[in-house]
Amino acid sequence: MALLSQREWLSGLPKCELHLHLEGTIVPETLVRLSQRNDAAPLTLRDAEKLYVYEDFIGFLIAFKAVSERIQTPADYELITYEMIHRLSQQGVRHAEVYISVGILLRFKQQITVEDMMAAVERGRKLAEQDFGTTVFWIFDAVRHFGVDEAAVVFTKAAELKQQYPSIVGIGIGGDEARGPAVEFKELYAEAKATGLHLTVHAGESVPATSIWSAINIGAERIGHALSAVDDPELLAVLAEKQIPLELNVTSNLRTGCCKSIDTHPVRHYFERGLMITLNSDDPPMFGANLLDEYETVQREFEFTNEQMRELAANSVEASFLPPARKISLLAEVERYR
């Protein structure tokens, strides 16, 4: 029996993806298909590829908006969901918890309701789960710089639709941290928790560690990025003690310019300090790296052993919002994997 290459070994490693934006999984070829359906002057492939080029974090937000605008109908949402799950299954991802930018939909897409969108992604999810085996939960994401009132609508929709779609498991706030401090959402998060929704927060991606403290203070069960925690020893101690899972996105941080070089990324430091870290891809086509690429890059650049990569994969299972029985089953898969 031939020895597996390291990439093949990492591909077979059972893992979960916990920080992935549905709209950010659209590859340029699919964007062209969406444009042909919905634009008066459809994009060429070259035009589409240009939209994925940007210079900084704000440029990335603009690019993300430009891609998201091409999703106009329920059929579009069903398509991108099915394709996303297919690609995840090819990387050894057993389960994913995916952000849907409901805040963007509500502000910019009056032609489609949240209810119609949700029915569409559920059709795509069920068909893809049947075809490929990878399961998916949804997290409704509000845009923090759109303000508290718009976020309240997003979170209310999540609570209402959760009754019909148990695959909706949580809420989050993304967007520009500088213009939407987490502390402003404290009351909304308490209300969401009371409805049974899990709480996530993007924090410490492009601003100082005070944003991560705010995320903890409003009840975040998982924190996305947490890049700036490295600058605050007291915060690192709290994160290690509380074992609050961190959704790390190394390639994303480099591509947006939030981290200046891979040598300075704190992923290894966090691991050695005993923080509960997971690896994630964020918006794969926009950053040129899917989750398998991320595992491969992190192992190579930071010299993680295979046993340590198994630990990171196990972290992704433990940090998920899966029910206990499924977690136990997946953790057993990780443990058996050699």
TrEMBL record:
Location of the Adenosine deaminase domain: 14-336
Q: Entry's Gene3D superfamilies?
A: Metal-dependent hydrolases
Cofactor(s), by name: Zn(2+)
Q: Which keywords appear in this protein's UniProt record, sorted alphabetically?
A: Hydrolase, Metal-binding, Zinc
- This protein's source sits in the domain of life called Bacteria
Q: Which Pfam families match?
A: A_deaminase (PF00962)
Q: Which family does it belong to?
A: Belongs to the metallo-dependent hydrolases superfamily. Adenosine and AMP deaminases family.
Q: What is this protein called?
A: Adenosine deaminase
